[in-house]
Specification:
By secondary structure, the protein is mainly α. It has a single domain, classed as Orthogonal Bundle (MetI-like fold), CATH 1.10.3720.10. 81% of the residues lie in helices and 0% in strands. The protein is built from 11 helices and no strands. The chain has helices spanning 3-9, 11-43, 47-62, 65-76, 80-90, 92-104, 108-116, 121-151, 164-172, 179-208, 211-214. Helix 2 (11-43) crosses helix 10 (179-208). The longest helix has 33 residues, at 11-43. Residues 18-201 form the ABC transmembrane type-1 domain. The chain crosses the membrane at residues 24-44, 51-73, 143-163, 183-204. It holds the Pfam family BPD_transp_1.
Length: 215
């Protein structure tokens, strides 16, 4: 059976796996973005706190994904839970780092001007600092999403959702007629999803970043 024949025969299951894969990555990225930006906001004013937040999230990223999921299984069981926790933790570093860099890179004179017209600290953060820091934050989100697309495939090890199930089935049946088709369909599916997500982020950037900041 050729690759395209395999895809035609299995398109319903492949689309289901692709939807579950995209959904898991999207939801984990939402949580990672909220936590990462919050950590950036809490630590960017202090050199040691910012370094601690970056170092901690970088340490998490050094843990192999299989080991991370294996450590989580005895605690939260199989399925969606270890997948969500692992992906969220892995997505933090690029967002935290870029949030800190972006917030520290805001022109102090703009912040002083906002303070001079009576803006509170919260108002300055929400109306001046975060909008100006948004481009690097969005870049961090894009990088994290591309990482999680690949890491999410390992979720199949813990009976998690996504295209990793197709890859693992192919690896488990190496030598059979459709083993290569299974691995290839899962891999190409993840690549396509990664490209679609990145295109969506480009569009979001064009809609949310003013021309002056982009320039």
């Amino acid at each position: 059976m050729s690759f395209w024949e395999y895809v035609g025969n299995r398109h319903t299951q492949l689309l289901t796996d692709a939807y579950q894969h995209a959904s898991a990555v999207f939801q984990c990225m939402v949580v990672a973005t909220v936590l990462g930006v919050a950590l950036g906001v809490l630590t960017y004013r202090s050199e040691w706190a910012g370094n601690l937040a970056t170092a901690t999230t970088a340490t998490i990223l050094t843990i192999p994904s299989l080991a991370m999921i294996g450590l989580l299984i005895p605690v939260v069981g199989l399925g969606v839970a270890p997948t969500v926790i692992a992906l969220t933790l892995y997505g933090l570093l690029p967002i935290v780092r870029n949030a800190i860099v972006g917030l520290r890179g805001v022109d102090p004179t703009l912040v002083d001007a906002a303070k001079g017209i009576g803006m509170s600290r919260t108002a300055r953060l929400l109306k001046v600092e975060l909008p100006l820091a948004w481009p690097p934050i969005l870049t961090g989100i894009r990088v994290a999403t591309q990482m999680l697309m690949g890491i999410a495939a390992i979720a199949a090890y813990a009976s998690g959702p996504g295209l990793g199930n197709e890859i693992f089935r192919g690896i488990a049946s190496l030598g059979s007629a459709n083993a290569l088709n299974q691995v290839l369909s899962g891999t190409l599916g993840i690549v396509v999803l990664a490209l679609l997500f990145d295109a969506a982020y480009v569009l979001i950037g064009r809609l949310t970043i003013s021309r002056g900041i982009r320039a």
